[in-house]
Hints:
Layout: H1 12-16, E1 22-23, H2 26-43, H3 51-59, E2 64-68, E3 71-79, E4 86-95, H4 102-116, E5 121-124, H5 130-137
Parallel strand pairs: 4-5
Antiparallel strand pairs: 1-2, 2-3, 3-4
Helix pairs in contact: 2-3
Amino acid sequence: MADHQAHGAQDEENMATADKPLxxxxxxxxxxxxxGIEEIIAEQPRLTFRPEDVYAAVLNGEALLWVAPEGFVxxxxxxxxxxxxxxxxxxxxWAKERGQSCVVxxxxxxxxxxxxxxxxxxxxxxxITALEEYLLAEGWEKDTVVYTREL
Length: 151
C-alpha cells in the first residue's frame, strides 16, 4: 500500500518531528507497540485477539503499522462482499497521552492514503461510547451498533 520506513528506537528523534504517520517495521517497534496493544486489550476485555495476533497480521502484510510521535495506528483492508467497496479500516489506535486530537490531526493524511489506494471510506469501530460524540462532531457517521449477549 505504501513504502515501509523503518523507525526503531534509534530513530525516535526523527519520529518526534514527523508531521505525518510513517509506515514502520513491527519488529523494530514491537516493544512499545505491544505495551499499547496490551493497554487497549486491558481496557476492552471483550476483544478476542492477543498482541501476538496483531504482530503476526502486520508481519504477514495483512495489516499496516503506522507510527507518529503521539502513538501508533494499525490499519487493514475490509472488503464489502455485496458492493465490492473497500474500507480503510483503523483496527487499533493508541496514543501515549489521550486528548491530543490525533483523529483530527491525522485524518486528512489517512484519507489521502485511502483515496490513493482505491478505498471508498475510512472505518473505525469502538466500544468506547465517549468517542461517539467526538467522531460525530468531526463529520463521521454512525453506521452500525452491535450488541451481544452471552448464552
